[in-house]
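Practice problem 4.
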């Protein structure tokens, strides 16, 4: 009887972790988009983000596709929530984001980017992490992204998740795709070295920015570092550092954005071949 109670408790905890993420198994769709998720203004959005019948469980999953349009390949972006609010409520402090993926990579540098944050009162308080999946897989492979520790108060009250396909080394390859399914929150994995052991890319300040934005990062040892600014379709806007040799420490790179158009940009830090990225909003 005790074993039955434990099994029911574990099942309930799993369902609770999944229930906090909207449509975590991508089973429910309306007008070509998964319910509880929103795509950027790419046209047609349902070509970049589509329903797949190849599922880790259930009937459907989310497929992200690169599409050749306008003379080059463009990548998808899809966000939790809707166009006015990307955040969704959570009732506990997540330690890690779990999920399953299948991926085909056409060009070197193509990667699935995952950005997830935890917030309190609309402000980021922890769990701010961006990682890139660069390994293709013909079968579903689990990914685990450990969140950084949260700061202050009683913990976060909402979370945010974003998926995209980008290439911070060159043009995207047409035909690269990733299939994602069965997202959940869980305990931190101790079997994977934390991303912070190699480098930490912080939120730039100020953000949004009008004139100058300070990009701050730390590295744990002597490294070859590149820092590049991209627009949201993956086009290079500025090279800030190019294969620069740096020693252990915390660095700040002042970046002039006064001549950039209003919008969202991605700053990408490459440390010894490992990429980290974050978003910068220009608003004047």
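Answer key:
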């Amino acid at each position: 009887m005790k074993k039955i109670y434990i099994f029911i408790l574990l099942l309930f905890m799993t369902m609770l972790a999944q229930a906090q993420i909207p449509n975590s198994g991508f089973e429910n769709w309306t007008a070509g988009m998964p319910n509880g998720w929103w795509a950027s203004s790419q046209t047609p959005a349902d070509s970049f983000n589509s329903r797949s019948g190849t599922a880790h469980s259930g009937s459907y999953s989310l497929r992200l596709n690169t599409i050749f349009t306008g003379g080059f390949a463009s990548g998808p972006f899809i966000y939790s929530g809707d166009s006015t609010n990307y955040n969704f409520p959570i009732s506990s402090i997540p330690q890690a984001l779990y999920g399953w993926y299948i991926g085909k990579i056409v060009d070197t540098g193509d990667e699935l980017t995952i950005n997830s944050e935890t917030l309190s009162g609309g402000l980021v308080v922890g769990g701010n992490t961006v990682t890139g999946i660069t390994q293709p897989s013909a079968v579903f492979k689990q990914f685990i992204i450990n969140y950084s520790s949260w700061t202050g108060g009683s913990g976060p009250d909402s979370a945010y998740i974003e998926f995209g396909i980008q290439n911070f080394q060159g043009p995207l390859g047409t035909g690269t795709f990733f299939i994602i399914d069965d997202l959940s929150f869980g305990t931190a994995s101790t079997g994977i070295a934390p991303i912070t052991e190699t480098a930490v890319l912080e939120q730039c300040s100020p953000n949004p920015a009008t004139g100058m934005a300070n990009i701050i990062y730390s590295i744990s040892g002597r490294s070859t570092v590149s820092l590049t600014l991209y627009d949201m379709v993956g086009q290079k806007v500025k090279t800030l550092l190019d294969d620069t040799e740096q020693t252990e420490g915390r660095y700040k790179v002042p970046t002039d954005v006064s001549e950039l158009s209003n919008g969202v940009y991605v700053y990408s830090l490459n440390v010894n071949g490992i990429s980290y990225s974050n978003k910068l909003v220009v608003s004047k």
